[in-house]
Amino acid sequence: MNTMAMYLIGDIQGCDDPLGRLLDTIDFSPSRDTLFLLGDLVNRGPASAGVLRRLTAYGDAARGLLGNHDLHLLAAAHSVRPPHRSDTLQDVLDAPDRAALLDWLRQQRMAMLETVAGETLLMVHAGVLPAWSAVQTLMLAAEVEEVLRGPDLPDFLRQMYGNQPDAWHDTLAGAARLRVIVNALTRLRFCSADGRMEFDTKEGAGGAPGGYMPWYEVPGRRTAEVQVAFGHWSTLGWMDRAGVWSLDTGCVWGGKLSALKIGASLAERELVQVSCPQAQRPG
Predict the structure, then answer these.
(1) What share of the chain is helix, strand, coil (3-state, %, to 5)?
(2) Beta strand 190-191 with 239-241: parallel, antiparallel or unpaired?
(3) What local confidence, expressed as pLDDT, does residue 283 receive?
(4) What domains can be seen in the chain, in order of their start residue?
(5) What is the pLDDT of residues 20-43, one digit of tens each?
(6) Burial of residue 265, with CB atoms counted within 10 A of its CB: 0-12 exposed, 13-18 middle, 19 or more buried
């Protein structure tokens, strides 16, 4: 008899067929299991609407994080951002159930915190600034979630984009404060020892520009005491090390779609992957 399981799933990016095959492979049952989706549910793959319809049908068994592509879909839906040439969001924007799909997306999270056998698991799409504890990360994420679900969403989306401020200060307020939170949680790869973010470099961990390092290697990072799971960084690939799991394995680029099954403890885990056809070419 199968027992209840939790699965962490990396960036799907509109690849509904691989998602279906992955869920078949793990014998997923929404009445028994829970999916924790690490963001970038949509865009660049061929079936963003299909992914969203599948996940909305699972109710509370599918719990999603919002990645940069998911926020981009909301911005496109509110005519805040023009479509990029590599976007594949039109199936959602033209869908008869568009309103329901977008409303579900607005209800998803910017960060999630779970306790497994007394251990803390923090889940974000991209990264966490070194000055933030796990609890502070959750509280800051909630500030963005409140705006995403409220009447000021269009105004927020219009002010969301930009690389400045590139560092966190407790005194930040308004749009600047929310922008830093969003950028850290959905775009971060590299930052300096004092938490200044860098957004241009897309290479793997070894490609850090001078003065910067992968966010999870910053000395004194306050979330180092908990396990952090994230996606976003396909050039990093699957990474399993003390305190950090990376789960974006490049499905949309012809890599794999990954699910990490968590057992009775965080140490009890199993990686399950399916191969994906290449939906887009990098660059």
Answers:
(1) 35, 20, 45
(2) unpaired
(3) 65
(4) 6-275 (3.60.21.10)
(5) 999 999 999 999 999 999 999 999
(6) exposed
